[in-house]
Amino acid sequence: MAQTTARFGTVFSEYTANARFEDGQWTPWEVTPLAPLQLHPGSHVLHYSSAIFEGFKVYKQNDGNLCVFRIDAHIARMQQSARLLFLPEPPADMLRDMTMALARKCEQDVPEYPGSLYIRPNLIGTDVDVGAAALPSSGAQLVITACPVGDYFSGGMRPLKVLIEETMRTAAHLGVVKAGANYASGLYTVLQAKKTHGADQVLFCPDDDVQETGAANFMLFRDDAVLTKNLDETFLHGVTRDSLLQLATDKGMRVEQRKISVSEMLDWIKTGEAALSGTAAVLAGVGTIIHQDQEHTVNGGEIGPVTRDLRESLMQVQAGALPDTHGWITAI
Ligand SMILES: *Cc1c(COP(=O)(O)O)cnc(C)c1O
């Protein structure tokens, strides 16, 4: 059993699932021992960032059954990312079979819930051609790694400090692509926010449009209502976001998805809650929002009751303590 106290994403299972796209077709996929990749230094990905990824969870339910959460949604998003970055699109059944085979092979590594085996598929352009700056890579390598991870909030949930920035996280047409390049694009702003304001995250709000943070979607809550940005091309459409909105609807809450201005958001947090959603943390409460050097406390600087309740409900569905009424869970 791999240890799960290490920082998220630093411990890997001993196997990967991999396939290559060569001469216009996928090679038969295999599960093989984890090993460094062999890449020519002129590979497309190393120069022109033809790299996309996914992240989702395999975990053990309370009764010991191994399952995966919303695998179809993650596969569909990976296929979309591949298309939008002009990489070969892996077939859905291949991605699914590779994931299942890898999860079975790494079964011993799956910790108790809320720990999980975090599945990280990665697709990169492998053409050896430094002249291909304005061309896609026709060849590609797909590797799925698995990381046993513990409870994301093992030290307890700490309310986050978020800095409002008017810059863009990434180019608008790459907003929905889970591409490594988007993280590179946001890094300067995120590091500056840490350095100058001690912020945990940046909330990107270009053109007075509250979008998302560097790696998580943003939501506002009140007793009976959820407000979040409507799906457009500018931000990553989180599977956790979608799941939480569905659960909120099931609870009879009013779910509104539309454009939110910074002033409306600041107004909302005078009485409401704010939180960040994503696979790793599920839902993380925001305690402070910094706007133009002014600190605004959210819900008295504490994680609010709606944030806790929605987070708990989603985790209970995952763990099998609440029924899976939306077909989100697939047995391995
Ligand atoms: C992965 C990601 C999210 C969260 O997506 P989930 O499917 O909920 O894990 C949100 N924003 C960005 C930029 C992401 O890369």
Give the fraction of residues assigned to helices: 25-40%
| Net shape | globular
Mean pLDDT: 96
Kindly name the structural category. Answer: alpha+beta
Radius of gyration: 20 Å
Strand content range: 25-35%
Q: Please give the largest β-sheet.
A: 9 strands, antiparallel
* Elements, N to C (H/E): EEEHEEEHHEEEHEEEEHEHEEEHE
Poorly predicted ranges: none
The tally of strands reads 18
Q: What ligands can be seen in this structure?
A: pyridoxal-5'-phosphate
Taking the alpha carbons of the first and last residues, their distance comes to 19 Å
Number of helices: 7
Feature tags:
18 strands; binds pyridoxal-5'-phosphate; single chain; nine-stranded antiparallel sheet; globular; nine-stranded mixed sheet; alpha+beta; 332 residues
Fold blueprint:
Layout: E1 15-22, E2 25-26, E3 30-33, H1 44-48, E4 51-53, E5 56-60, E6 66-69, H2 71-84, H3 92-105, E7 116-125, E8 140-149, E9 160-165, H4 180-197, E10 201-204, E11 212-213, E12 217-222, E13 225-228, H5 239-250, E14 254-257, H6 262-268, E15 273-278, E16 282-291, E17 294-297, H7 305-319, E18 329-331
Parallel strand pairs: 9-10, 9-16, 13-14
Antiparallel strand pairs: 1-2, 1-3, 1-8, 4-7, 5-6, 5-7, 6-18, 7-8, 10-11, 12-13, 12-15, 15-16, 16-17
The structure holds pyridoxal-5'-phosphate.
Q: Can you give me a brief rundown of this structure?
A:
The protein has seven helices and 18 strands. It is α+β, with helices and mostly antiparallel strands and 332 residues long.
